[in-house]
Amino acid sequence: MSESTAPVMGNLFTPEFVADPYPTYRQIRESNPFFRIPGTQDWITVRYNDCVEVLRDKRFGIDNDRRMREGHGDDYMSVPAYASLAHMMLFSDPPDHTRLRKLVVRAFDARSVEKLRAMIRGVAKQLVDDMLRADRGDLLTAFARPLPITVICKMLGIPDEDHHRFTAVEDRAGRILDPTPMSQEELDEANANTLASAAYFEALCAERRRAPKDDLLTALVQSETEHGKLNSDELTANIALLFGAGHETTVNLIGNGLIALHRNPEQLALLRARPELIPNAVEELLRYDSSVQLTGRVALEDVDVAGHHIAAGEQVLTLVGAANRDPEVYERPDELDVERANIRPLSFGGGIHHCLGAQLARIEGTEAFAELLGRLPNLTLENLDAPRWRPTITLRGVSALPARW
Fold first, then answer.
1. Which of 17, 42, 79, 283 is positioned for an S-S bond with 343, CB 3.0–4.6 A?
2. Cα–Cα distance for residue pair 188/27, rounded to 1 Å
3. Mind spelling out the 3-state secondary structure of 219-262?
4. Whole-angstrom distance, CA of residue 35 vs CA of residue 25
5. Is the dihedral of CA 91, 97, 102, 103 positive or negative?
6. 178 φ, ψ to 5°?
7. Helix (H) or strand (E) holding 65
8. pTM to 2 decimals?
9. pLDDT (tens digit, 9 = 90+) per residue, 287-336?
10. How far apart are CA 113 and CA 363, in angstroms?
11. CA 137, CA 65: separation in Å to the nearest integer?
12. For the chain, how big is the Rg over CA atoms in Å?
């Protein structure tokens, strides 16, 4: 590691970094864009093409068991939060990943989610109708969270009367995904949430076994009875994954996007004047301030990447939030430009673990911005200079978004 990289390492994962990681990303890119963290088996890479290579190369995987044993000991499966992660497709390699993903991929393909657009638009319209009964509030709780939560609840078949169980903002909900260790308090909170979620979904699955419905939950429950398809632990863990992944990206896309647009009022005005740009703007907002900032891969065998030898078992943290601002790929990467062409953000990852809900999030984002910008011409954000960012580094989003409209 070069001397110029050393002081940058001290900036990583501090509150200042969480508030604005992009200056640090720029320092890393300019000093040493692919390096091993001293004293660890972890590498960091920030360039777009290097991140793409790692994410797509089948010689890299998740190898969750090895990572968890190294980080948390051989008995990590006795910890509810870690055990749940181990059963999720997100933390599985083939053949388990292939088996699990096949069970749900059809529900999230482009044709299937496009059929949901009218429903999504209707949910967004109703939320704005409700907002117009007041003149101010928290946009996160009034709109950004309930929109994708309502959509994924409807897809799964969660009863309408239970939707409120999932709308509370949990600042540290994504901490378990961070590469930095959790405190005991954070782990206790994660375990409690995991157990509560598992109990709720187990009860709902039992109901679907008694009375099947036309929803994704029933489809998954029925897969449980097919030999080798899905066991009970995988069932509840992956329902929880679909629920969490099905809304977190969109919540942050809407929140981060609104902040970016209001900090760039000329871009906001352009988008209001030319709403046909909104689908492209969603891609630019994903690039500009990504909902997901990093993802990791473990070398399953010795691999050479960008002139570096990665030994089997070593992990590469791809900082996709940095890659999305790579000047070798995008001109003026630190500027927001809703008319930008050829946007290919890495915000949904890549390779076999490319986010299942990517197209769903894009449609939700498009309908959300169309409704908010089209019907709330006086929308302004408060605390724009110092929003309260959630204390996570993998998922990037705010805890609240106070606004007037």
1. 283
2. 35
3. HHHHHHCCCCCCCHHHHHHHHHHHHHHHHHHHHHHHHHHHHHHH
4. 13
5. negative
6. -75, 150
7. helix 64-72
8. 0.92
9. 999 999 999 999 999 999 999 999 999 999 999 999 999 999 999 999 99
10. 8
11. 44
12. 21
Q: Is the pLDDT of residue 233 over 70?
A: yes
398 contacts 140 by C-beta, under 8 angstroms: yes
Give the pLDDT confidence of 354-379 residue by residue, as tens digits: 999 999 999 999 999 999 999 999 99
Say how far apart CA 226 and CA 235 lie, in whole Å: 12
Tell me the sheet residues that pair with 380. Answer: 404
Helix (H) or strand (E) holding 139: helix 139-139
Quick count: other Cβ atoms within 10 Å of Cβ 138?
17
**The tokens of 191 are what?**
């375990």
pLDDT band at residue 229 under the 50/70/90 scheme: confident
What is the rounded distance in angstroms from the CA atom of residue 230 to the CA atom of residue 30?
46
- 42: burial class by Cβ within 10 Å (0-12, 13-18, 19+)? middle
pLDDT tens for residues 252-281?
A: 999 999 999 999 999 999 999 999 999 999
Quote the CA–CA distance of 309 and 320 in Å, as a whole number.
21
